[in-house]
Amino acid sequence: MARTDTDARPDQSLRGVLDELPLDRLKDEAKNGLTSLGEWAIQSAGSRIGKATDKLDDIAGGGPIGASALAGAAKDGLPGAVKGAVGGVKDKVAGVFSRGGSNDGTKGDKATRSTNIVEEIDIGAPVRVVYDQWTQFQDFAGFMKKVESVEQTSDEKLDFKAQVFWSHRTWSATILEQVPDELIVWRSSGEKGHVDGAVTFHELAPRLTRVVVVLEYYPKGMVERTGNLWRAPGRRARLELKHFRRHVMVHLLRDADQVEGWRGEIHEGEVEETDEEAREREAEEDEAYDEEYAEDEEDLGDEEELDEEPEEDEEPEEDEESER
């Protein structure tokens, strides 16, 4: 039996079969499928993953995800392309979480990038009432939704426990600056992330106070970083401030004296004036003011007496008829 050219050169025969296959169409379909998959991934993960993964623009253009998809397409057609793309997305998202990042450009598990949170809220109450309630940190768990407990171990040290999604996190905070009715600045530390920040109090009117909160959130771990992608910490801070306003205006305005805030001062992490010393000083100032006010009232009364002129005796009117 005579050998044909096909039997003699099998590589040329295979090449001819490949030339007849609609590979161009297969590539186009794979690219279209990958583009749709990329859009779905971006919408599901949010805009932060889009930025962290170079916006996933290279899905169908030869990037890491696209390369995985094309490799899968060569092995198993369109189903293989989809599996390869999904694997590429997982690898790249995992790379984002493992890399981390910091402001100084270093990479590693310990290096994290902070999230800035700035919120403000107006509360219809005097500034002293608002400030005093804020300093009652142990009460936070009573009206804030995600704060489970706050323990004040000293005037400048606090231990927090809060819920993050289905997990529970603890961290410790140290107050660096605290001035009554004006500001509180703190730094914190924790195994699963921490929050540094400051809160200031501004009297807009005798019964209107603005509270401004600025936070730097440093997430650690998969749960924290995943929640951070959707700006969950910022939304949670906003909601907790609303709970604080509700508590002040609904439960405190009827009897504002029921809250005794911490009136001391802290500078550079050291207590310079305790609460007892501050209250004694305020009492002395109030007493001195009352005495000065009373003296001013007495002086004003004496001046009014001096300004009054004595009345002259009126001469009796003569009876005109008698004179006639």
UniProtKB/TrEMBL annotation:
Coiled coil: none annotated. Signal peptide: none annotated. Residues 270-324 have a biased composition (Acidic residues). Residues 123-243 form the Coenzyme Q-binding protein COQ10 START domain. Residues 264-324 are annotated as: Disordered. Pfam families: Polyketide_cyc. Gene3D superfamilies: 3.30.530.20. InterPro entries: COQ10_START, ORF3, START-like_dom_sf. This is Uncharacterized membrane protein. PANTHER family: POLYKETIDE CYCLASE/DEHYDRASE AND LIPID TRANSPORT SUPERFAMILY PROTEIN, POLYKETIDE CYCLASE_DEHYDRASE AND LIPID TRANSPORT SUPERFAMILY PROTEIN.
